[in-house]
Amino acid sequence: MKKSYKKDTILKLLSSMSSEKEIRKYLDRFSSDDYRFALIKVGGAVIQSDLENLVSSLAFLNEVGLRPIIVHGGGPKLSEELNKRKIEFSFLNGQRVTTKDVLDVAYEIFSGENKKIVSALNDQHVNAIPVIGDIFSCNIENKDLGYVGQIKETNSNKIKDIISSGGIPVIAPIGYTEEHQLVNINGDKATLALAKEIVPDKVIFLSEIGGIFDGNDQLISNINIKDDYNNLMSQDWLHSGMKLKLEQIKLLLDSLPSNSSVSITKPLHLNRELFTDAGFGTLVKAGHQINKLKSLNNDQNNALVSILESAFKGTLSKNYFENDDKEFYISECNRSSIVITTFKDIAYMDKFAVINSARGEGLGNAMWNKMLSEHKKIFWRSRASNAINNFYKDVCDGFQKSDEWNIFWIGIHDLDELTACINYAVNQPATISYEN
What we know:
With 436 residues, the chain is an alpha/beta fold. It has 15 helices and 23 strands.
């Protein structure tokens, strides 16, 4: 029997992942996105080994009225079939060299994998619509790759029509040239070409491993292209397929609005990735321009006040800028800030603020890492009720509780120095006032 989930039910089902307020925020946002809700690339290995979780997660979205665009791959199945038929093949820079024999099998396999996803979704009463070959107009640019298409145009009107009629398009990575030559397309490139045209709210890659892992096999939860890309691309452990994916993601983010992001996760964690700030997998963002300032002009002053009052939901003291030499870290998007003063040549973090709409984007982490890269010794305080205290406990070297404040520190090891810092933090006047 068909299960029936409604929007209020999703709150209960996801309550173990996050707060109801946070989940409802995403539900409300996505509900107004029509065909731009989400573009999801399904890796070929997922179709082979994790189809049940994929279908379950997509059916769940369908039940609450959300229609993603699905693009799938089929590489592992294609390699398996080519080996079985003793057809030789190779890869060049992470892309499959596609001879005429390989192309014939590729069309057969991709059509079959498409049918497999569509049939499984239809069995769960999801109106999945197969789309094979009439979305991507291509050229053949690299003769060394054979019949591999470079996408020149995408026909998104058909996708919009499917979604507006209540369907979910399931798109195979197949295209045609102007001469009507069938071509193989890298599934990631197909996804990114669609993303550039549609500009979806979310772009998600579903893979068997569920993210990008470092040389110690640890999940990298956040990647900021601006700060991390060159270093990652130089690492030996970033294999050719994942290196190509990250390269394509960078190209996509370069062409999308600055607050766009791309997630890599498993089908099982798709809904957590969609409906929570923390997500589950690897979140890739273009990165954030963070300006470090010793003084503020009038516009910068107003922006900082707005960030602090919005994040703390209170009113900043009128004389906040009158005392102490301060340095300011302010994101170029004016949604996050850190204010630093000094005590005995040690940095005191007086304020750390991220406005609510920017949470879950990695902006706070970028701000934090920028500050830590420039201050090896730092201490700060936080009210006992502050929701970010668990994060502070994870990153600090130690902390001490007082009646009203928790005092945290990093890099301070001398006991006398630490005692002086704690006393300083406890005795600082409150500079945010709250209405009763």
